[in-house]
From TrEMBL:
<keyword id="KW-0472">Membrane</keyword>
<keyword id="KW-0812">Transmembrane</keyword>
<feature type="transmembrane region" description="Helical">
    <location>
        <begin position="59"/>
        <end position="84"/>
    </location>
</feature>
<protein>
    <submittedName>
        <fullName>Uncharacterized protein</fullName>
    </submittedName>
</protein>
<feature type="transmembrane region" description="Helical">
    <location>
        <begin position="21"/>
        <end position="39"/>
    </location>
</feature>
<feature type="transmembrane region" description="Helical">
    <location>
        <begin position="184"/>
        <end position="208"/>
    </location>
</feature>
<keyword id="KW-1133">Transmembrane helix</keyword>
<feature type="transmembrane region" description="Helical">
    <location>
        <begin position="145"/>
        <end position="163"/>
    </location>
</feature>
<feature type="transmembrane region" description="Helical">
    <location>
        <begin position="96"/>
        <end position="117"/>
    </location>
</feature>
Length: 209
């Protein structure tokens, strides 16, 4: 675990992205498979009260509805990223934003494994569920999760409340600085989130039309 913490808190942005991606794939598909076998179908369906909103018949408006709804998850990640923790033996602080991100991925894995989508047809076999995840031309999930991943990694060093054992120090928000690479990855993550909203919005209005 200390090795993973070291990689996720690395000063190298590429290293943070690589190990986040590896852990994401293991967690998401592992959770999908396990929940498929041990949890009932529709386990999380309609369990999220925030999903109770009326969708627009206008595709453009619907896309922005979905985008801003999905950005709520990014807000949670950003708020978590304002906190950093490390052990005395560690060099860098580990962003709490990773915890928020991986909890979202864990939930997404359960949703896929139990076929708990709010708008979905009859459940399909496990292998088909996994394969469909990579249909990025018609499925928004991977776009959105990768967008969240890139955003999480890009802001992994913005913490202003830093805890080292029992010692906690703070720094000012204006002291936060992102490198050029981090800014580019952050913008790419937001673009991915928008791409996911576009694909999902078109898919929903196609179903409802």
């Amino acid at each position: 675990m200390s090795y993973i913490r070291k990689k996720l808190s690395s000063n190298s942005l590429q290293e943070r992205i690589l190990f986040s991606l590896m852990f994401f794939l293991i967690l998401f598909f592992g959770t999908t498979v396990i929940s498929y076998f041990i949890l009932p179908e529709g386990f999380l369906k309609n369990k999220n009260p925030l999903q109770s909103w009326n969708t627009s018949n206008n595709t453009l408006i619907l896309i922005f509805q979905i985008f801003f709804y999905n950005m709520l998850s990014v807000l949670v990640i950003v708020l978590g990223s304002l906190f950093g923790q490390k052990k005395e033996s560690e060099t860098n602080y580990l962003s709490v934003g990773y915890l928020a991100f991986f909890m979202l991925i864990f939930q997404n894995g359960i949703v896929l494994g139990t076929w708990s989508f709010s708008m979905a047809g009859p459940a399909v076999p496990l292998l088909d569920r996994i394969i469909r995840t990579f249909d990025i031309a018609h499925k928004a999930g991977l776009w959105e999760m990768m967008g969240q991943l890139l955003i999480t990694c890009s802001i992994a060093h913005i913490a202003v409340i830093l805890t080292n054992g029992k010692k906690t120090v703070t720094r000012k928000v204006r002291d936060i600085r992102l490198t050029k690479g981090e800014k580019m990855v952050l913008m790419t993550g937001i673009v991915f989130m928008l791409a996911g909203a576009i694909i999902e919005g078109i898919a929903i209005n196609t179903i409802l039309s």
